[in-house]
Amino acid sequence: xxxxxxxxxxxxxxxxxxxxxxxxxxxxxxxxxxxxxxxxxxxxxxxxxxxxxxxxxxxxxxxxxxxxxxxxxxxxxxxxxxxxxxxxxxxxxxxxxxxxxxxxxxxxxxxxxxxxxxxxxxxxxxxxxxxxxxxxxxxxxxxxxxxxxxxxxxxxxxxxxxxxxxxxxxxxxxxxxxxxxxxxxxxxxxxxxxxxxxxxxxxxxxxxxxxxxxxxxxxxxxxxxxxxxxxxxxxxxxxxxxxxxxxxxxxxxxxxxxxxxxxxxxxxxxxxxxxxxxxxxxxxxxxxxxxxxxxxxxxxxxxxxxxxxxxxxxxxxxxxxxxxxxx
Length: 327
Fold this sequence. Notes:
The structure is a single chain. The chain is mainly alpha-helical. The chain has a domain of 75 residues. Strands 2-1-4-3 form a four-stranded antiparallel beta sheet. Strand 1 and strand 2 form a beta hairpin. The protein is elongated and about 165 Å long. It starts with 5 loop residues before the first strand and ends with a helix.
């Protein structure tokens, strides 16, 4: 706990008036050990708890600052957006503001406790002063000084005033849990960022390959367009030449064209007659095959009819024999 001050108690004739020692007393004083209300003799335990709480707060603050510094270093190393860096700074400032608020509240509680203790000490002092007066207090103080000098082997016991309301950072565990949670979230975000960057790099290389392929395809299409244009020009020139040839040879080729057309028609008629004869032969063969098939089908039907009659007669005989056997 926070040490308010070292006091020494003197009980003249049963009275309890605390007095400051070590800092205000003129010399070493013997102290009669007692346990008044609001005092604590286990100063070592209190100082140990104070050291533990202080070290815990320091470690917590160091961890908190270390985490935020890591985030800032990550932002700088990864060259992230400035808005993310500003959000990290804002969160850091909010955390420090919360810690400062808790510190101010603890200081206020300590101040209130000190004021209460000082009021109790002042009331006890006034009560003792009104009861014994200043002369009696001086005599008691001189006697205590002589007794302390006569016994050099004794050890002065320092009493420490402690607050009834211990200033314990109750939110340390919560802050540590929150810090661990944020640390795990930051690690997950770092892993996700690495995965996204790896995926982006892979996608970038694939995209570059696709771009190169698209450029090659565009180049090939341009070459094909040029070739098509050249071919179209050649076709146009050939059409013009053909038209000129046709116009020049039209008069001389009329008779030849008629003769060739007649010859072609005659050849076509001959071929058609030949094909017609072949089709008639095929039709005749098909009719013969159909007639033969019909005859075979009729014969098979007769055989099936005979078989049915035979099977019916056999069935009747079988039933008759079975009936006779039963009888």
